[in-house]
Amino acid sequence: MDLYTATRDSLKLFRAEYRLARCLPRVVCYLDDIMGATFADCNGERLAVAEFNREHEGTRCIGPVYGLRHHIGWPHSRAQWPDMMYWAHFIDHEDYCRFEGLAMSESLPL
Fold it and tell me: What is the per-residue pLDDT for 103?
């Protein structure tokens, strides 16, 4: 994905009107133009993602892979690319609630 229009147009593949039968419940996205002195939530890739998230609130969203740099080794943990990795979450996918093996399977007692 790259800049506003290309990102907006690419995200059409993730829109609610498309069936998810041949799609994973989560898809990795790399947003390489979100970092920079003039980039903000109101322009570029971040704006396209924000618009997508507003349009699909509760069913599909795109969000950062929080804490990724803490799970990768040096020297990658010092690079900028971990902050550019996002997940497209298809909450309305029939397999979204299945354990995917990426998160810790143990739960804390309440």
Answer: 66
Question: What is d(CA 61, CA 14) in angstroms, rounded to the nearest whole number?
Answer: 9
Q: Structure pTM? A: 0.84
**pLDDT digits over 94-103, tens only?**
899 988 777 6
Q: How far apart are CA 103 and CA 93, in angstroms?
A: 18
Predicted confidence (pLDDT) per residue in 49-73, tens digit: 999 999 999 999 999 999 999 989 9
Residue 74 lies in a domain: yes
CA 82 remoteness from chain centre: 12
DSSP 10: H
In which domain, by residue range, is 42 found?
3-16+27-90
Report d(CA 71, CA 42) in Å as an integer.
30
Whether the CB-CB separation of 20 and 95 falls below 8 Å is answered with: no
State the total domains in the chain. 1
Q: How far apart are CA 12 and CA 84, in angstroms?
A: 20
Residue with tokens 């902050």: 83
